[in-house]
Amino acid sequence: MSKSFLFLDTIANKVDAKGRVSLPADYRAIVKELSTEIVCYRSLTAPCIEGCTEDLLEKLASDIENSTDFFSETQDDLTNLIFGDAKKFSFDSTGRIMLTEKLLKHAEITDTAVFVGKGRKFQIWSEKNWNEEEARLREKIKLRRPSLKMEDNQ
Amino acid sequence: MSKSFLFLDTIANKVDAKGRVSLPADYRAIVKELSTEIVCYRSLTAPCIEGCTEDLLEKLASDIENSTDFFSETQDDLTNLIFGDAKKFSFDSTGRIMLTEKLLKHAEITDTAVFVGKGRKFQIWSEKNWNEEEARLREKIKLRRPSLKMEDNQ
DNA sequence: TTGATTCCCATAAATTACCATGTTATACCA
DNA sequence: TGGTATAACATGGTAATTTATGGGAATCAA
After folding, report:
1. Tens digits of per-residue pLDDT, B49-60?
2. Chain segment A50-71, per-residue pLDDT in tens
3. Cβ separation of B84 and A117 shorter than 8 Å?
4. d(Cα B51, Cα A134) in Å, to the nearest integer?
5. Which nucleotide lies at the shortest CA–C1' distance from A28?
6. How far are the Cα atoms of A22, A138, B15, B28, B96 from residue B93, in angstroms, in the given order?
7. Which backbone phi and psi does B3 adopt, to 5 degrees?
8. Facing B60 at nearest CB: one of A7, A26, A149
9. CB spacing of B84 vs A116 below 8 angstroms
10. Do residues B39 and B49 make contact, with C-beta atoms less than 8 angstroms apart?
């Protein structure tokens, strides 16, 4: 039986002058538990950084490899983009990673990085952009409640 | 055959200055039985906190991982809202969890937290909001009853 | 050397673990 | 059945630990 490892919660940590940020403790625990590494890349759809474990990217790679779907060409392209952009990040003894200029710039992060859990993945936003994004999502939900399995058993 | 694990009953416990609340003993028993953890998040539809076992979220994550592609837009939005808001809560040796400001504020809880069982999930309300909600629900049932009776008599 | 990255130490704040007390529910016995 | 002993639970307080974060020394590359 596999232990659960979900990236959860929303945590705002400071980015210091050297570009260092504490990876949230819970996230670190996952990395240690799986003895894997964190991989980050620019989101293809939003002004934020996206991150996951190296494990997940490996799974993605083999999924694509074994796919018999004729129409997965787009997905294939997207995957190439991600792999081309992705970079491994390891944290120091105090739990900090050092994000690159490229990533920070894409996410418009200056002094605060907001980590947002997404289950198997997570995202890193600027405070401003995340506030706007969250408002947008909540608005969207109000209009049409998602028909997720979870919601079915009320 | 799986053991039954339903969150039941309505229990009011005090929230102290630090935000600590005793998780009802029956709820704790479930968590121990399943060797999982409690996860809480702001209800999307009501002024209350919603809680479930981490197992349930795990299942959701797996469903998402398998059923749809890596790049689905709708899924992206949903996972942000659900996993981004959810947080794991483990209880200490005396059975208490520490709720966050964000959650308490959303549920308008100050000094008392009312745990309401909902089967696989549960909710945490302020006394005031729960009294109103319960009254509303009972009222709603009353209105529906005539039609239920008719069906019974057939 | 200069600039950048990594490593290590220090501190304050937040979180967690633990101990003690009061209260309620349960079990037991006369 | 009533009363009491016992266990389980809730709750207040405090000690111990973890985490975030700032700064500096050591290391490395150009």
Report:
1. 999 999 999 998
2. 999 999 988 888 877 776 665 5
3. yes
4. 20
5. D19
6. 29, 36, 17, 11, 8
7. -65, 155
8. A149
9. yes
10. no
